[in-house]
Amino acid sequence: MRLLQLHADFVEYEPVDKEISEAEVIISKSKQRIEEVVLNLITVELGDDEEVVSAALEEIHSYLAKVKSKKILIYPYSHLSSNLAPPNIAFSILKSIESSARKSLEVYRAPFGWTKSFNVKVKGHPLAENFRVLSKSESAIGQGHVSKAHGSEDDISHALKAEEKLASSWFIMKPDGNMIPVNQYKFDEGEDNLKILANYEILKKRTVEEVPPHVRLMKKMSIADYEPASDAGNMRFYPKGRLMKSLIERYVTDRVIASGGMEIETPIMYDSKHPSMESYFNRFPARQYSILSDNNRQFFLRFAACFGQFLMARDFQLSYKHLPIRLYELSRYSFRREKSGELVGLRRLRAFSMPDCHAFCRDMNQAKEEFLRRFRLSMDVIDGLGLSTRGDLEMAIRFTEEFYQDNEDFITEIVSKFGKSVLIETWRERFFYFTLKWEFNFVDNLGKASALSTDQIDVENGERYGIEFVEEDGSIKYPIILHNSPSGAVERVIYALLEKAAKFARMGNKPTLPLWLIHTQVRIIPVSKLHMNFCEKMLEYLCSMRIRTDLDDREESVSKRIRESETEWIRYTLVVGDKEIEEERFMIRDRVLGKQRTMALKDLVIEIHSETVDKPYQQLNLPSHLSKRPQIMV
Fold first, then answer.
1. What mean pLDDT is reported for the chain?
2. Domain span at residue 245?
3. What are the b/e assignments for 76-87, b being 16+ CB within 10 Å?
4. According to the 3-state scheme, what is the secondary structure of 34-50?
5. Is the CB of residue 98 less than 8 Å from the CB of residue 60?
6. 277 lies in some domain
7. How much is the CA Rg of the chain, to the nearest whole Å?
8. Which burial class, exposed, middle or buried, applies to 631 when counting CB atoms under 10 A from its CB (0-12, 13-18, 19+)?
């Protein structure tokens, strides 16, 4: 079942004609108007039965409590899914919801099976829109549920089961290496996010109970949205979002290649019964998607780029002189069948793009040298993306007690380079293939922590995959493998940038994105048609200077076009009239500085280039003239 709830000032609807032969009989086709109501647009899907009614009622009551309402309109709405239940079952379920809800609520229901015209005015508060996908006895925020067919216990790795029962010890380590148990640590001023991270990790409460701000922003900015025709956690990216993804992907890839990474590409689907795969799957804490292929062979969609790179490295002829060797792939996509209640927006997905770099090292000493090198790279990449490692992120490190005893100075050096206190998790024994792992975590506006950059020291998979190299003395050895993503998932980077912008707005500042990631960097607004020819030449010049520029040639007032430029977070807006054409100096509205400046066009080019100097460029991927653009409905 799919349920879209809208808290409305009013809803008007009028039955027009029967849409299906099974439409219910109605007495009147007159227009109905209901004031101060929660509109429940409901799609009943194939496989739904009376058990889903309780989940729907629970969700309806939960939402009503949040918006402080006791009045609902049940509105049959078949457009939220293509997987519809038979009409008789759908009608029966809707009637059950109506009957049960009437026990405590004021309930209205629009007729089933009719085409209707309707008008709704949705309130403007943050909780006014709420979307859920409900399965039997469960509900989920954002999208989706996992059916038994895809989510049986047999599909869950031993490592994931172990992680859920894992007994850990938790500490805070200060930059000087002093390690203090969390329950004894007094968090300093400015360590609020570190405290949130500690509570989040220790309690392991991953479910999301309300929609985070970035979901509203990703829709409002036409960056991304849920795809109702796909599995939950698979998103659609509009042109602006695709451009952001492309630029982030290019930036991270360029940085990895510059640091010695060799870019490759591997398949996204693997044989579940391949000896290396079956063994590795049970050492990796992730849920998988299974696929039945030819001759009843069982395959799975990759949850990381690891095994493709490992299988490739196994076929290399390696000497100790080649190490460390660095393989890199931007996996578009990797797939993890995350729990439905954890899925929301761009924060946690089931299909995501992950820059994945593995280094194959000669021994632990070389591994630690490479580890520190990649740690510095990750800090630089995160800072370059517009997220400050010192200001926006918190760090967690996980290791075995044995590794800490043997490498205390090494771990202290990592924390010292980060420059502030970090969360530590220790294990008495090693449950996974890695013996040490760190990650940078972003804490969002709802107090949820999400890992971005990460690296791991893997002491198992060299031997598991038969990756061999010839040592100086002629002996055959297995490498230690490092698993690094300098940025984390690309979608999660966008999530963090939008959540950071929301924090800025909450503090009274103007939300924005880094200039190199903004879809339109400069917008030109002609005062009238008389100024169009000159504006066309400006557009051509700025685009030739590799600045993403568009031209608002619509027949709207200048003030309205300026307002819309502001709401799109466009950094520079140029209004061009007679004076600007005569003097060739332009009054530039700088959204970030919040003021207007008079500049020559070439000086504006210099300013933009100086701010985006080390970042990739990609041209506009929408028509440069706004009159030619489709309106994206979100």
1. 89
2. 209-268+301-498
3. bbbebbeebbeb
4. EEEEEEEEEECECCCCC
5. no
6. no
7. 28
8. exposed
Amino acid making up residue 237: F
Give the separation between CA 480 and CA 361, rounded to whole angstroms. 5
Contact criterion met (CB below 8 Å) for 422 and 396 = yes
**Long-range CB pairs of 473-481, under 8 A, 24+ apart, other chains included:** 477/362, 479/318, 479/323, 479/360, 479/361, 479/362, 480/360, 480/361, 480/362, 480/363, 480/364, 480/366, 480/367, 481/310, 481/358, 481/359, 481/360, 481/361
Confidence of residue 344 (pLDDT cuts 50, 70, 90): confident
Say if CB 159 and CB 283 are below 8 A apart. Answer: yes
Q: Are strands 169-173 and 449-458 parallel, antiparallel or unpaired?
A: unpaired
Classify 86 as helix, strand or coil.
Answer: coil
Strand partners, 270: 300
Are residues 124 and 20 part of one domain?
yes
524 in the same domain as 488: no
Q: 150 with 62: CB under 8 angstroms?
A: no
* CATH for 54: 3.50.80.10
Question: What is the pLDDT averaged over residues 597-625?
Answer: 96
Please write the tens of the pLDDT for every residue from 538-554.
999 999 999 999 999 99
Of the candidates 144, 50, 62, 138, the residue with the CA atom closest to the CA atom of residue 97: 50
Same domain? For 481 and 581 the reply is no
